[in-house]
Amino acid sequence: MKILICDDHKLLREGLIQILRPVEEITYIGEAGTGEEVLKLMKNTAFDILILDIALPGKNGLEILATVKTLYPSTPVLMVSMHTQVQYAIRALKKGASGYLTKNVASDELIIAIRKIKNGGKYIAKDLVEEIADTAINGKDLQKHETLSEHEFDIMIKIANGQTPTQIGLEMNLSRNTISSLRSKILFKMHFETSADITKYCYEQKLIT
Q1: pLDDT tens digit string along 92-143?
Q2: What is the pTM of this model?
Q3: Minimal CA–CA distance to 8: which of 37, 29, 28?
Q4: CATH number for the 2-137 domain, one of 3.60.20.10, 3.40.50.360, 3.90.180.10, 3.40.50.2300?
Q5: CA-based angle 72:75:78, to the nearest 5?
Q6: Distance between CA atoms of 75 and 123, rounded to whole angstroms?
């Protein structure tokens, strides 16, 4: 089994490598610090699983996930994140991820997740399963950000991280005016007045760190 790990923190990559190296069926572990590096490495090597962090410089992990599933649809992707917010897990799964783990999971759960995904299954962190089921089955009330479309949610996170409409437009291949219009729509849907309100909300909801 060949595995590619993408995390912009070298120490975290090394930690994952130390956990996975003793696993008998894993024959090769590649590493990348950005989404762009992931795509370059995947051009030359057929990886069996991609372990992908959500918080990356440049394009975030969810954006890279969408690109990977377009170019390499048969490659399973396991998303890992500091975010315990269930909405991130749901959005990752909708975009084609085979699993979602929070970074506080035990090493044995990571290995279980990889083996299950390699065999065609799905895996969700144990600490999120119950909350996802509660949301899906019991009609748990939606939070403000859950009313946004995928596109609007991505832009909201970029705004919360301090990016300007011009910066966001360049990343998403959209005009500054389009981003400004979408920002206004987000503010309206969330009943906010300023970008500062968005940042405060995202921080309180642990959508950003």
Answers
A1: 888 899 999 988 777 888 999 999 999 999 998 877 776 666 655 455 555 7
A2: 0.73
A3: 37
A4: 3.40.50.2300
A5: 125
A6: 15
